[in-house]
UniProtKB/TrEMBL annotation:
Signal peptide: none annotated. It comes from Rhodanobacter ginsenosidimutans. PROSITE patterns: CYTC. It comes from the Bacteria. Pfam families: Cytochrom_C. Residues 43-127, 174-283 form the Cytochrome c domain. Keywords: Electron transport, Heme, Iron, Metal-binding, Transport. This is C-type cytochrome. The lineage of its organism: Bacteria, Pseudomonadati, Pseudomonadota, Gammaproteobacteria, Lysobacterales.
């Protein structure tokens, strides 16, 4: 290749790459309104965006995996926690920590009800943006992990949720093993809010010793549910989380549990059986 051909190759190549870049840019801009649900940007969402920036939430939290990585990614937080939990948490984060055991990290922002409503609306809008599956899972602080939150291989999660194309050994087919996989792979995953390690309370209480706690609750005079044993109590808690609320707990408000009440629809009866079987082993 002589100098003239080399120069021509460089010029043509640059033009082609430039045209490709412009085409991809135009296509991206064309899809932004649809991908970002721009039509759903309401006055509350706009207010919440303003509250997010005025309180420098980005200095600790992240959206779409971008931010300070000091606190969890909040891209899907409304789907994982729900409005009732978020509203109570934003009003007074100190109620969700045992400051005798751990140092509280989330400051009380003294937000008004209107600001909280707007911020939840903003985060809900963020959660519905088509971000091509990012983040792939709730991101923990600084890439750390908490006891009782072990990751589950995608194939195992597919097996538990009934996805095709997986194979399992006899051990993996056991109800307890499938229940443990569901604990991390259900939608939303139980492990996103609960730990199985003693004393590790998260958005929900630790489930360590749940069988003993269930028997104690049934024996108490405060229990008005229909369960006769620990397994029945656990099943009732999964399908009807507001049926029994521990007196004085911080995981409910106005007689309603912060736990999602959608598992009766998202899980099959067999899957509920598996989850109960696993949780019943947490003596």
């Amino acid at each position: 290749m002589n100098k003239r051909q080399t120069r021509l190759f460089a010029i043509v190549g640059t033009l082609l790459v430039g045209l490709l870049f412009l085409g991809m840019t135009f296509d991206t801009l064309r899809q932004i309104p649809k991908l970002s649900n721009a039509q759903d940007i309401s006055p509350e969402v706009t207010l919440g965006n303003k509250v997010w920036h005025e309180n420098n939430c980005i200095n600790c939290h992240t959206l779409f995996g971008e931010g300070a990585y000091y606190a969890p990614d909040l891209t899907k937080i409304t789907q994982l926690r729900g409005e009732a939990y978020l509203r109570a948490y934003m009003h007074d984060p100190s109620k969700f920590y045992d400051e005798q055991k751990v140092r509280r990290l989330m400051p009380t922002q003294n937000l008004s009800d209107a600001d909280i409503t707007g911020l939840i609306a903003f985060l809900d809008w963020v959660s519905k943006v088509d971000n091509q599956g990012w983040p792939p899972r709730p991101l923990l602080v600084s890439g750390s992990s908490l006891p009782g939150m072990a990751a589950v291989a995608p194939a195992a999660a597919d097996k538990a949720t009934g996805a095709p194309g997986t194979q399992a050994t006899t051990q993996a087919d056991s109800p307890i093993a499938q229940g443990e996989t569901l604990f991390h792979g259900a939608s939303p995953p139980c492990g996103a809010c609960h730990s199985t390690a003693p004393g590790v309370d998260m958005a929900g209480p630790s489930l360590a010793g749940i069988s003993a706690l269930a028997e104690k609750a049934i024996a108490s005079g405060a229990y008005k549910g229909e369960a006769k044993d620990a397994a029945g109590f656990i099943r009732e808690s999964i399908l009807h989380p507001s049926k029994y609320l521990e007196p004085g707990d911080m995981y409910s408000a106005g007689g309603t549990s912060f736990m999602p009440d959608t598992y009766a629809q998202s899980l099959t009866p067999e899957q509920v059986d598996h989850l109960v079987a696993y949780l019943s082993t947490l003596k």
